[in-house]
Structure formats: structure tokens, C-alpha cells
Sequence to fold (372 residues):
Amino acid sequence: MSIRRFTAALTVCAALGLAFGTRPAAAETTLKMNISISQNSHYGVAVDTFAREVEKRTNGRYKVQNFYSGALGAERESIEALQLGTLDLTMTSTGPVPNFVPEVAILDIPFLFRDYAHARAVLDGPIGQEMLQKFPPKGIQALAWGENGFRHMTNNKHPVNTPDDLKGLKMRTMENPVHIQAYKAFGIIPTPMAFTEVFTALQQGTVDGQENPLSVIEAAKFDQVQKNLTLTGHVYSPALILMSKAQWDKLSAADKEAFMAAAKEAVRANRARPSSRSSTRRSSRRRLRPPTSISARSSARTTSTGSRTTAKARHGTHPCRHSRAEPAPEWGSRGRESRVVRAKDAGSPPPRGRQSKWGLGAPPEGYGLMYA
Fold:
């Protein structure tokens, strides 16, 4: 075939393609998402659900590649990477978030929420949604509130039955100024540390203990390197699904809706994860009701063996001591109910309440802590 005939044949094929509406395939974009704990966790089920929903709702034009166990960095590093545009998405606890969005710090005050329903109502309601609007000016797009859970304490020194037992314990804490000040008030020696370093620090005795929701303790296998577990429920820890603002701005309006809808499905899967709440839900209403113990709740994953308890998790059986704290109003109980309110809704003075006397500094502008 001569060059002239070959060229003519190509021209005809191109014309036929245009005539029958052939178009180039839409470009596929892969986004990277990082979490600090394993795939087999309440975060893992959330980000996997998010990835499936994004691909489905955008007809495959966007895919999310998930990285687990801090493969792309710890939580604070992930948030910084969102700002820099070197990471697209992350799911994180609120631990490091006040370093970027100070208003979120009020949610980490101990004994703020009485149970899961209370916490979710605040986060899913006007107050929580208003807080999400604080992120875009920081180079971050907040898609939804997730759930980490009520936090409990473990240590290798001795059982914790009263607040006095906390004095002198060197505990790993999140890089969160509110947590650090609160734990100092307990007499704890707080040691801020990235989550990815905690297992080794516990194993080597760099710190005596740590505090996390049961779901995180289980997923990180901390029971393998800790002897004592105390169900304190001292802080409700939210989570957040965050996206780089630079990447968010590239989305069309329809794709933004798809990502928001995918985030809602991810949160639904995250909150439905049984281990994230099964051990505390039944008795969580007693948390702020003196003189009932703030930590007197039983775990579905523990069985008594005399004075010892055997903690059973998916990865095996490990003996650990399980303790119940004595009633202790000085741990932070101020009454039957606590709630976060916007200043404009609180009135002056606040009806049937009083400002917190925790001494943790002034709450973020526009918010206050009330005890009913």
C-alpha cells in the first residue's frame, strides 16, 4: 500500500469515528488517603467505604487509594500534607487538629458529652457543622465528623481505681493542648507522641501507659504490651474526614456533592463498627451522674478469672488487669448533663448552668461550656 493510500485510509477512519460519536475516554484521577491505624479498624471500614462510594458516585472518574497504619505519616503530618497539597485525604482524630483549627479544642474537654447520642447530636447539628466551616481558610476541606470513641486508660505500673492512682504516671497523650493541661491536673506526666510511635514506646517502657478508645486499643494491639486497663471514659474523641482544599477546588459541583455523600456513608460505617462503642454504650449515661462511678462499666470482651481478667481480641488472648474506678466527682462531674453551646444561644447569664471551672483556659471565641 502506498503512503498516499494509507493516509487516505486513516482520514476515512477518523471521519467515521467522529460520525458515530466516538470520544476519548474520560481521564481517571487517583487520590491518596492516609490513616494512622490498621485497615481492620473503625477508621479502616470508613475509608474503604469512602473509596467505594467515591468511585461509584463519580462513575469511576475518581478513585481513592487508601494507605493504612501511618504509611504516609502520622496524623499531624497528614494534616500538614493536606495543606501542602502532597496528600489528598485523611481520616484523623481531633487530637492534632487544634494546632490548625483552634476552635475544635473545646470538643476535647474531659467529661463534655454524656453518651454517644449526645456527642453525635452536637457534631451533626448546627454547632458541629459551623465548626466545619473553620477549616477552608486553613487550606483544608472538612467533609464530615466521624467517630473515634470514648477514651480509656491503660498502664503497666498499677491498677487505677481512684484519681490519686494517676499521680506520677507517665502517659502518652495526643499532641493536644487541652488534653495535656487536663492530664496535668490529674497528676499525670503527659508525654505528647505521634500515634505511630506509641506501641514501641510502651514496649520499651519509654512511657507507662496511654489512653485511647477500646477500638483503637484493640486495633493497635496495645493489650500485648499493657497490663492494666481502666474504663475511665474521660474524653469523647471525634474523628474527621479531611481533604486538601487545593484538590477540593478542582472538583466540579456535581463531584463535590458526590464526595460529601461518600463521606456521609463512610461515617455511617464508622459509627456502626461494633467495637467502637459496644463496651460503653449501655452504661454511658452514668458517666456524669454523681455518685455513680464515671468508669464503672463492663466490657463485652472481658471475662473474670478471680482477681485477674482475660481480655479477648481478634488477635488472641492476653491477660491484663481490669479495674473499676471508685466514684470520683473531682474527676470532672459537674452535674447530670453537660453541653457545648454557642455564646449567642447561652444567654447572659446562662440559664440553669454555670461556666466550667476546669481551668483549661478560655474556650474558643463564640463558644462556652455549660453544665445543666
